[in-house]
Amino acid sequence: MTPALHLEPVSALSGCVRVPGSKSLSNRAVLLAALAQGETTLIGLLDSDDTRHMLKAMTDLGVSWSRAEDGSVTVQGCAGRFPRVSGELFLGNAGTAVRTLAAALALHGADSGEEIVIGGIARMHERPIGDLVDALRALGASVRYLGEDGYPPLAIGPRTQVDTDTVRIKGTVSSQFTTGLLQAAVLLGQGLNIDIDGELISKPYVDMTVSLMASFGVTVQRDGARFTVPAGAGYQSPGECQVEGDASSASYFLAAGLLGGGPVTVEGVGTASLQGDVAFADHLAQLGALVEKDATCIHVERSGPVRAFDQDFNDIPDAAMTFAVVALFADGPCTLCNIASWRVKETDRIDAMATELQKFGARVEQGEDWLRVWPCPEPAQNVEVETYDDHRIAMCFSLVSCAGVPVTILDPGCVAKTFPGYFDAFASLRQPA
């Protein structure tokens, strides 16, 4: 593992990059394929640490799958009943995998008195899951905390029958709680109304979940803050499922087109994408980028100074991190609002981003759910950026080199969580100064 990667400044940046499959879609698709009736081939599935943890969990649960030479993965569905529900699942720091599998196993209804344990690395055990567990318990799930209440690891046992068709879940901490409950509700067979308590953050991620469920034969109805999973529903294999490119990963290359001049074209995401993070390109256009989009690609180049911004990023919290680095080079102070979810991600991202931006000489202020960055006309050179074992921090700060500032990224291998080949793809666009 390389302890550090030094990136020289660039004088020009242009080219075309195809981003790997969406991490969020990949792990959702693996689980739905496993729960479906029939065999499903997942095309374009991301190969990264997070998806490897999910696929290993499928093996541990007795689900058969295989990977072809072209990278596609074929999953043998278990028609809603995992063959083996016992032992321990280690899921690293894969939040999507932990939340969705916990819900599926809790509502699955084991046939014996055994428990199955879900856990991960130390940071995963600091990421909240209490709101999801509360909702699952209201549906008869047996879930025990093995450490601090409200956090993994969890021990999940057989579910008891509860006579209810409605459950409430808080929407203010993580959209993955709602996603997990939606996907797992199908296993009840009786139908379920899910009422969202408070504002639902990261709404596009839930919309993506609903769209993917529809492709596996389950249509979720929505009426305001209520989602309804129909009675008698069951997942049916679509035969093939195409996983589109990762829109969050695309954000770094799109921003590089703005900071480095471009033109840069990103293939694999576009107007046809299910992911809400494609809206990142629209925000770039407001900052002065020239943006063109079609169904499967986005083209960005710079047209003038980077405009200052004051934006609510509740819908695209992961991609919004990229704007914190762009703010270093704007023409005025920039504010990122409604990003409280950053604090419960792979690290406390608000605090981490503020700390690292200040190393470049920027003035930075933070609050519980916001970050304000003043541009830095003469950023410090050769800053060593601490990445906190957080893939997105490593990828974000690579962008300062696009603005002519040399930088060193510590522990660059952390990008393997979602994009193992990131720095090679980034290098393919850079022209040395």
Overall radius of gyration: 21 Å
- What order do the strands of the largest sheet run in, or round the barrel if closed? 16-17-15-2-24
CATH superfamily of the largest domain: Enolpyruvate transferase domain
Could you describe the largest sheet, including whether it forms a barrel? 5 strands, mixed
End-to-end distance:
27 Å
CATH topology of the largest domain: UDP-n-acetylglucosamine1-carboxyvinyl-transferase, Chain
What's the number of helices?
12
Instruction: Specify the overall morphology.
Output: globular
**Helical proportion, percent range:** 25-40%
Q: Quote the beta fraction.
A: 15-25%
Number of domains: 2
Task: Output mean pLDDT.
Answer: 95
Low-confidence stretches: none
CATH class wording of the largest domain? Alpha Beta
Architecture of the largest domain in CATH?
Alpha-beta prism
Count the beta strands.
24
Account of the protein in words:
There is one protein chain. The protein has 2 domains: 4-20 and 244-432, UDP-n-acetylglucosamine1-carboxyvinyl-transferase, Chain (Alpha-beta prism); 23-240, Alpha-beta prism (UDP-n-acetylglucosamine1-carboxyvinyl-transferase, Chain), CATH 3.65.10.10. It is 29% helix and 24% strand. The protein has helices at 23-35, 49-60, 95-108, 130-138, 175-185, 203-215, 247-259, 280-286, 317-326, 349-359, 391-397, 422-427; strands spanning 4-7, 10-18, 39-43, 65-67, 73-76, 87-90, 116-119, 142-145, 154-157, 166-170, 192-197, 221-223, 226-229, 240-242, 261-267, 289-293, 297-302, 310-312, 334-337, 364-366, 370-373, 383-385, 407-410, 430-432. The strands form 6 sheets. A 5-stranded mixed β-sheet has the order 16-17-15-2-24. The protein has a 4-stranded mixed β-sheet with strand order 4-5-3-14, with helices on one face. It has a 4-stranded mixed β-sheet with strand order 6-7-9-8. Strand 20 (364-366) and strand 21 (370-373) form a beta hairpin. Helix 1 runs parallel beside helix 3 (95-108) and helix 1 (23-35) packs parallel to helix 6.
